[in-house]
Amino acid sequence: MPAAVFSLAFAAFAIGTTEFVIVGLLPDIGRAFGISVSTAGLLVSFYALAITVGTPVVSALTARLPRRALLLALMAFFTLCNLAAGLSTAFPALLAIRIVMAVAHGVFFGLGTTVAMSLVPPDKSGRAVAIMVSGLTVAMVTGVPGGTWLGDLMSWRLPFLAVAAMGALATIGLWRLLPALAAQRSAGTVLSQLALLKSRALMPLYAIAALGMGATFAVFTYLSPLLIHTTGFRSEGVSVGLMVFGLGSVVGTIGGGRLSDRYGPKLSMNIALGGIAASVAALWLTAHHPALVLVNMFVWGAFAFAVPPIMQETVVLVARREAPEAVGTAAGS
User: What one GO molecular function would you report for this record (predicted)?
Assistant: First the structure.
């Protein structure tokens, strides 16, 4: 596997840490700004909304730019956003920073997926995507619980500053390892890029991904208060729970890519979505039993994070057939 794929994975690690570490920091952020945990939860829900709404537009607007330069610019911007988040003094400012950061996240992942697939033979594309996305899932195992512990020990600001440092390292790694990557040969117009989002072949895929991952993050956003107030964990236990979820997500990411390569995306996606539904239901039924909660969190993480590599590869393959000039927009949506 080319080293450039692993540089993309490290960038994904930094992005994944800042995306998910916020879950363990919500109580501290709420206290710092004098707001409720549910209001602080907007930092998660608005982040997801910004990815959904902003990514297709920005992906279309930047489709004609050289891909290497765009990836570097996105990672540098992401780094600055984390630095600003760690220094923010008002909740509205922090929320605004998270929103623009989310758009950079979405565009980076969409573009990074197509780049990772272009660096390997077609029969290894699923594994290349899985390796890149595994950076995000490794963040769930180490970055998120570590950041939660660090925030609980010192300040909620420190994890953001640490991610800014990681982002700087990731930018350097991409600059050193990524080969020259031209813009798409026939990027089309912005309108033609956005028109792809109405594709009958792609819209069902987007809907499936939104519902499947939406179910996961609707619960995951408030996992910290659930584990503390219902399961009876202390703050240190939340970090353990997040680490267990992250271990499952690593298994799911690697397994999802291999399943998709071997059995095709349709069967693999059905298994993953069914597993999400079953594990979330089991979490609700066992919320008062700490050991069972941890088991369910591992299984839930595995099924939930099998979805992204399966979905990303499927969307790129469909977009290449439907409209090759808009692959980046499709993958980033």
Answer: transmembrane transporter activity
Question: What are the tokens at 310?
Answer: 């399966």
Q: Is 90 exposed, middle or buried (0-12, 13-18, 19+ CB in 10 A)?
A: exposed
Cβ atoms within 10 Å of 191's Cβ, excluding its own: 8
Residue 36 near residue 166 (C-beta atoms within 8 A): no
pLDDT digits 0-9 by tens, 7-52:
999 999 999 899 888 888 888 899 999 999 889 989 988 898 888 7
Q: Tens digit of pLDDT for each residue in 168-209?
A: 999 999 999 988 776 555 555 555 555 556 666 667 777 777
The 3-state secondary structure of 226-239, one letter per residue: HHHHHHCCCHHHHH
* pLDDT attached to residue 201: 64
CB 318 within 8 A of CB 202: yes
Q: Give the model's pLDDT for residue 188.
A: 52
Rounded-to-integer distance, Cα 327 and Cα 322, Å: 9
Q: Up-side HSE of residue 9: CA atoms within 13 Å toward CB?
A: 22
Structure tokens at 141: 């195992």
> CB neighbours of 318 closer than 8 A, spacing ≥ 6?
199, 201, 202, 205, 330
For helices 235-263 and 3-33, the axis angle rounded to 10 degrees is 150
Q: How many residues does this entry show for the chain?
A: 333
Q: Which CATH class is domain 3-332?
A: mainly alpha
Taking the alpha carbons at both ends of the chain, their separation in whole angstroms is 26
Burial class (CB in 10 A: 0-12, 13-18, 19+), 257: buried
Q: Which amino acid is at 263?
A: Y
Percent of all residues in the chain with a pLDDT value above 70, rounded to a whole number: 87
Residue type, 141: V
Categorise residue 232: left if φ over 0, alpha if ψ from -120 to 50, beta otherwise.
left
Tell me the H-state helices in the chain: 3-33, 37-40, 42-61, 67-87, 91-118, 125-138, 144-153, 157-177, 190-195, 203-220, 223-225, 235-263, 265-285, 290-304, 307-322, 327-332
With the CA atoms of 192, 194, 197 and 201 taken in that order, what torsion angle do they form, in degrees rounded to the nearest 10?
Answer: 10
